[in-house]
Fold this sequence. Notes:
Keywords: Cell inner membrane, Cell membrane, Membrane, Transferase, Transmembrane, Transmembrane helix
Number of helices: 17
Shape: elongated
Order of helices and strands: HHHHHHHHHHEEEHHEEHEHEEEHEHEH
Membrane topology: Multi-pass membrane protein
Low-confidence stretches: 1-6
CATH architecture of the largest domain: 3-Layer(aba) Sandwich
Pfam family, one: EptA_B_N
Subcellular location: Cell inner membrane
Number of domains: 2
Oligomer: single chain
CATH superfamily of the largest domain: Alkaline Phosphatase, subunit A
Largest sheet: 7 strands, mixed
GO molecular function: phosphotransferase activity, phosphate group as acceptor
CATH topology of the largest domain: Alkaline Phosphatase, subunit A
Helix content: 40-55%
Number of strands: 11
CATH class of the largest domain: Alpha Beta
Structural class: alpha/beta
Amino acid sequence: MLFSFFRSQSQRAILMTALGIALLCNITFFSKLFHYALSEHNYFLALSAPFILMLMLIALLNLLLLFASKKLFRLSLVVLIFAGILGSYFIDSFGAIIDANMYTNIFQTDSGEILDLLTPKLLLYVGAATLISLWILFKAPIRFESFTQEFAQKALVLIVSLLMVLGVYMNFGKSYSSFFRNHNELKMYINPAFPMLSFTKFVYKKIKPKPVFTAIAMDATRPIHEKKKLVVFILGETARARNFALFGYDRPTNPLLSKRDDIVFLDNFASCGTATAISVPCMFSKFGRTNWSEEKESYENIVDVLAKTGVRVIWRDNNSGGDKKVAKRMSDVVNYGGKGFDDVLLRDFQANIDKQYKDTFVVLHQEGSHGPTYFKRYPDAFKTFTPTCDTQDLEKCTQEMIVNTYNNTIAYTDYIINETITQLKANEDKYDTTLIYISDHGESLGENGVYLHGLPYMIAPEDQKHVPALFYFSDKAKREALHVKANERFSQDNLFHTLLTLFEVKTSEYKPNLDLLR
């Protein structure tokens, strides 16, 4: 029966699929594995890993196709191949890890962001996957035996493959266990196994019963002052602290803000996540990063708390991903959709402020430095650093060009922040004013072969988690008090409680140890 493996056309199809996926769709996995294994002189693991992955893929395919009919067999191979080819494009090109959170990002991506990702290379991958799929569906000469024979063959090959893997592990398990314990992230690059497992987790999260909506801070109160408060929060997009001159970067990316002596830049500020879909709802929530999950979106956030105490909330959004449902219960929300530059956020700023004199919280959500089309994020007047990468196909550009283009987006953000401070200063005779700027997450620009953002937090490089954060206060005492703590470790966990203090809201939800101003 074992030798029927070599005669069975279905088994040969499984073998060729496993071989193709292992060798062509796992380049990043093997490059990382070989790098670690050879640097640790673990030569046996480096030599045996491709063979083990092949056996595991053969076992997995036989398990998945154990009860498959003829049509389902072909269709299943197509799904696996298509998933493997598409996964390899994003993993190999950007160093991406396709986990459940990445699927959340994908399904929240709008048409503009999708078009920004379209490159000739991606179209080539999709074209190749389509041609292979059509050939397997309609032309591949795969002859099937009876259902009983096919089932017996698959079951036997499945058992033999697993026994061979088990045999290697029994003899060399110490080498494998210690290696993958030390490099646990490697499993996330196994394609398409990890992306497909992540997709099942994503689907499960979507279909399971939704948690009940929960109101918070029902005891919140706020004093009324004759002079009102005006707090503007600029919610940045994809800005990393390393490229801010205010942080010590050796290029003048903050030509305007660097001249100011009335702002406080926090040197050590961490994001809640590495993607907008996580960081934005997380930073506005009462839950810190370690307690955050998608289910927590069913709770009210700081915007709701301020609104229920009578604070006027104005939300202006130029991010193509929108407000991530943070402002869904607010009435004064305008979304520009990222189709223009971020100066649209300041359009009618004064007119909106003048409509009503009361404590006001304004959120300006940027398109910021969103990639890979960095060149679309700033007007030509801000093309300061050259040469630039004026294409979404980053592989056509050197790292210098990519960094230059990204730096131009930071210089434009510098302008937006400075203009907003100017607007606030014009209102200081009537309002006690504050400006906060915090980016949602950072960005990788090719360091160690990683681009963009969205890696799992535990293995994400610091550039995806270390974000710029700065404050402006009309109250000099607040500015000086925060300046003393500028080098301390803070994070987006601090935003909820700091905003409570800025508006003098009293509630049992307040945690003084997370208040930047305490």
